[in-house]
Design brief:
- The chain is built from 14 helices and 15 strands.
- The strands form two sheets. Strands 7, 8, 9, 10, 11, 12, 13, 14 and 15 form a nine-stranded mixed sheet that branches. The protein has a six-stranded mixed sheet with strand order 2-3-1-4-5-6, sandwiched between helices.
- Helix 2 packs across helix 11 and helix 6 runs parallel beside helix 7.
- It binds P-hydroxybenzoic acid.
- The site of P-hydroxybenzoic acid (PHB) has 11 residues, from loops.
């Protein structure tokens, strides 16, 4: 008791340093609608991080406030970000599944004195729109460049590319073309589909008609990718020997049971597989499985969120909980740690994550469950798209 009183007096003498503040983090993502599973994975990653690392940084309590943008909707994203900053007084903005939702918020960061930590949105240019953006996910340049080499080495010389017609799709198309032509291959046709496309049969016909030996594809993970890969299998392209090359968005683990044996052998390149064999990943998956409730729903946005929280905790530590966006961002430039995905660094210049990209193959385990099996590592990949974005 006496000790407690003395401690209380000391705390008051120190100017109330022992009194905790609450630091709010506003997270924007798709928490309802067709992409709700992706938002659920943001939350699972955040909850897993807080379960393993606590809900406090120093004396400060961390509170996460969620706002729902079900589909890419820049106006809604910006309005919610403003509400989070003005009304909720969040010190950090984070999340952002879709590129347009992140892009719409970059102009308010400076005046709001708030850093943005991107958990997913993958268009290279986003980090160039404000010095207060840091990204812990990937870019489609980063994930699509290695698959071009894989395709060429598989003996495929003529490819048709098919992408969703918005930022990350256009980046993926450019990345694949640059990588594939460098090898000596040829992209015979490039199709851009509206983001809202959900009937892929006409596209499959155009792929068949193109005479290409392979197809490169990017769509944002969700019902879109599941529908595309199903259509590829069901329209006879796979059976006809037209090979599919894609970044790992097209084989997210939560879609594998629905794709079934038809997806076996499919090769993709990506920054993260739930099967990644490391102690850090085992701890992450155990905590994230618990957080999400149903392990079959766990997929890659959870790791972007988990590492994003690591970055935010480091920012809070460096600023002592005070609101200073530039100081917070400067503190994580060059930060390295071992993520569940492997070793990573926040590149000091671009503020984008440098990481290994893995070639993976859809495999069925002894337990009958499908997984992405890592078979090759492209080490320490930066973002080749940044030069193009400038
Ligand atoms: C994006 O909009 O930047 C985005 C969304 C989902 C993905 C990849 C990129 O799987």
């Amino acid at each position: 008791m006496k000790r407690f009183v003395l401690a209380a007096i000391a705390a008051v003498a120190l100017g109330g340093a022992a009194y905790a503040d609450t630091i709010k983090v506003g997270v924007i993502g798709p928490f309802s609608g067709p992409f709700a599973l992706q938002g659920k994975n943001f939350k699972a990653g955040i909850d897993a991080y807080m379960a393993l690392n606590g809900k406090k940084v120093g004396n400060d309590d961390i509170e996460v406030i969620y706002r729902d943008v079900p589909q890419a909707d820049p106006a809604q994203s910006k309005a919610l970000a403003q509400e989070l900053v003005v009304k909720e007084k969040v010190q950090y903005l984070a999340g952002f599944y879709f590129t347009p939702d992140a892009m719409a918020v970059t102009p308010i960061l400076k005046q709001a004195n708030v850093p943005m930590v991107i958990f997913n949105a993958a268009t290279s240019a986003i980090v160039t729109k404000s010095p207060l953006v840091v990204r812990t996910s990937f870019t489609t340049w980063q994930t699509s460049t290695p698959i071009a080499k894989v395709a060429y080495d598989a003996g495929v010389k003529k490819v048709i590319s098919v992408v969703s017609d918005y930022g990350p799709g256009v980046d993926a198309e450019n990345a694949f073309k640059a990588g594939f032509e460098k090898q000596g291959g040829q992209v015979v046709q490039a199709i851009r589909m509206p983001l809202s496309t959900n009937d892929f049969s006409p596209i499959m016909q155009r792929i068949k008609d193109s005479g290409a030996q392979g197809v490169f594809a990017f769509l944002p993970s969700g019902p879109t990718t599941l529908g595309f890969v199903k259509a590829y299998n069901e329209n006879g392209l796979k059976a006809g020997g037209i090979k599919l090359f894609a970044p790992g968005d097209l084989t997210q683990e939560s879609d594998l049971p629905a794709l079934g044996d038809a997806a076996l052998g499919m090769q993709t390149t990506f920054h993260y597989a739930i099967s990644h064999d490391s102690a850090e990943n085992k701890a992450f998956v155990a905590a994230a499985d618990k957080a999400i409730g149903n392990p079959a729903e766990l997929t890659f946005p959870a790791v972007g969120a988990f590492d994003g929280m690591h970055v935010i905790y480091k920012m809070i530590e460096a600023t002592g909980g005070k609101q200073d966006a530039q100081k917070a961002v400067d503190a994580v430039k060059g930060l390295s740690w071992v993520s569940p995905r492997g070793p990573v660094t926040i590149d000091a210049e671009s503020r984008h994550i440098t990481q290994n990209i893995y070639l993976r193959e859809v495999t069925k385990g002894d337990d009958g469950k499908y997984y992405n099996k890592e078979i090759q590592t492209f080490e320490k990949q930066g973002d080749p798209g940044l030069a193009a974005a400038k």
